[in-house]
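Progress note, project year one: complex with NDP.
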Amino acid sequence: MSELHFLSQLTGCFAEPVDENPSVVMMEAAYRHHSLNIRYINIEAGPEKLGEVVAGARAMGWIGFNCSIPNKVAVIEHLDGIGISADLIGAVNCVVLRDGQFIGENTDGKGFLKSLETVVSPVNKSIVLFGAGGAARAIGVELALAGATKILVVNRDKNRGETLVDLLNSKTKVIAEFIKWDSKYTIPDDVEIVINSTSIGLFPAIDAKLNIDFDSLRAGIIVADVIPNPPKTNLLREAESRGCITLDGLGMLVNQGVIGIKYWTGVEAEPSVMRTALEEIFA
Ligand code: NDP
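Model obtained:
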């Protein structure tokens, strides 16, 4: 009988039963589709017990695990090493067993990038990034490493916005600029990609809208949202009605999972199977 390898998602406070957790449903759909003899289970563990949990994962021979908030930063001190972009981002959401060592990676931004690349390359592009939290850091770093020319970070909080811009300007080749978001924002004419990486639009506050001039979303530009629930946000509706090419947050979620499975097993998972599993929950 072949061995079972456990992958675990360490989460802060998921209230729903394990088999209704969207990430579990999505990952297990991929495992079934590819006949992978592994399981993805959800473990609730806060930062205070994280060292013991990671030691337990080592002892049990896990091949890796995902971490969600609040463990993405706290887990780093318990690992053996960290990938380049995860180091820049300062957060780990995916741990991979490589040569007996637990190495921290960040697949959030890489998942976004993989989703974006289905419609456009970020190379030499000018980009507006709304938000400066964890998702924005991950996305901003990956876009910069991938060769974007300019990133305008538009955020309410000055400190967070400037911290992200300083990181991008000091550690990557991109030109980053902070714009304080205290009035209706107009997308500049040279911008080709617009990304919402704030939590505006996330269930249950689904009617919330970004404070922007929607008429500045020009036909043909790319408009992407990180919000997975609901996938069709107000931003994407407004963008679609103006002829923009849209990408929803399910694409990022699915592709971070695809990258995780590749890291853990070497298998290139089929994204459509994973997306369908999520759509049954979110759509
Ligand atoms: P953080 O709490 O770290 O950051 C939240 C960001 O949203 C901040 O920049 C904050 O601005 C901004 N924000 C929140 N409310 C408003 C508002 N009313 N007006 C303007 N700005 C606002 O969260 P994360 O970065 O971790 O997550 C952001 C979103 O990304 C979440 O909804 C999450 O679900 C989603 N996400 C999706 C993933 C996917 O795979 N699809 C993966 C990871 C995250 P300020 O700094 O001014 O407070």
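The domain at 3-106+252-282 is CATH 3.40.50.10860 (Rossmann fold).
The chain has two domains: 3-106+252-282, 110-247.
No further modelling is planned for this target in the current period.
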